[in-house]
Design goal:
The complex is a heterodimer of chains A (about 140) and B (about 100). Chain A has 3 helices and 9 strands. Chain A has helices at about 10-20, 50-70, 100-115; strands spanning about 5, 25-30, 35, 40-50, 75-80, 80-85, 90-95, 120-125, 130-135. Helix content of chain B is about 20%, strand content about 30%. The radius of gyration of chain B is 15 Å and the shape is globular. Classes of the chains: A alpha+beta (about 140), B alpha+beta (about 100).
């Protein structure tokens, strides 16, 4: 399962990838496309990426989480291409023996992914217009 | 002490790096890649200056853009080596 996918994200598959009888706490973060832009209703977001770097950077971020919370296991995916309103664009799932580590590892990966992954989004409006969104 | 027959080879005076552009930068430049020749001791900042000089549309690149060398975030004073992949990244917006 790669870190980038052009298909809908299957959160259940990510959860299955980190499931284990010894890991009693699982935390899943799912970020979805939302519609409330200033310039009108967004119907979809087109995600593009430096895919080779996303794969390496996600790997580095997850390795950092593993170093800080050695018992946590993390799986993550970013969706690319056109993602309709309401559908997930990113999912991070962390499992650990206890919830504290699972929450901490999941949060670390989400925050660092937002900060470091080379991914860009172009909003698509109802009237057919588009705009690069940077934040 | 180095050994082997190539130690006396002259130090190359120039290097080439493979530049890559993404998203808004690629759109404005009308291309997503470019091979750039630079002095052997060039940094990322030198590459930015050279691009802004050589390409009329490269004004889209800020003077201090985000950059990555060989798929890892790099600072503007990072030294480049021959064959490096130098990517210019518009403000990131993942998630």
């Amino acid at each position: 399962m790669g870190y980038c996918t052009h298909e809908p994200i299957e959160v259940g598959r990510l959860m299955a990838a980190v499931a284990d009888g010894e890991r009693g706490g699982t935390v899943a973060f799912v970020g979805s496309v939302r519609g409330g832009a200033e310039d009108g209703p967004v119907v979809a977001i087109e995600y593009s990426a430096y895919e080779e770097m996303v794969a390496e950077e996600f790997g580095r971020i997850i390795a950092e989480a593993r170093e800080r919370w050695p018992e946590a296991v993390v799986a993550a995916q970013h969706r690319l291409g056109q993602v309709p309103l309401g559908e997930p664009s990113i999912a991070v799932v962390a499992a650990a023996p206890h919830r504290r580590e699972a929450f901490a590892a999941c949060r670390h990966v989400v925050e660092e992914a937002k900060r470091r992954l080379p991914v860009w989004k172009k909003e698509q409006f109802q009237d057919g217009g588009t705009r690069w969104r940077e934040h | 002490m180095p050994s082997g027959g190539d130690v006396l080879a002259p130090t190359p005076r120039t290097i080439t790096v493979e530049c890559r552009f993404f998203a808004r930068y690629a759109q404005a430049l009308g291309r997503d890649a470019l091979t750039l020749e630079l002095p052997a001791s060039a940094t990322v900042a030198d590459a930015v200056r050279e691009l802004r000089r050589a390409l009329p549309a490269a004004g889209v690149l800020p003077e201090r853009p985000l950059a990555a060398v060989n798929r890892e975030h790099a600072s503007l004073d990072a030294r480049l080596a021959h064959g490096d992949e130098l990517a210019f990244l518009p403000p990131l917006a993942g998630g």
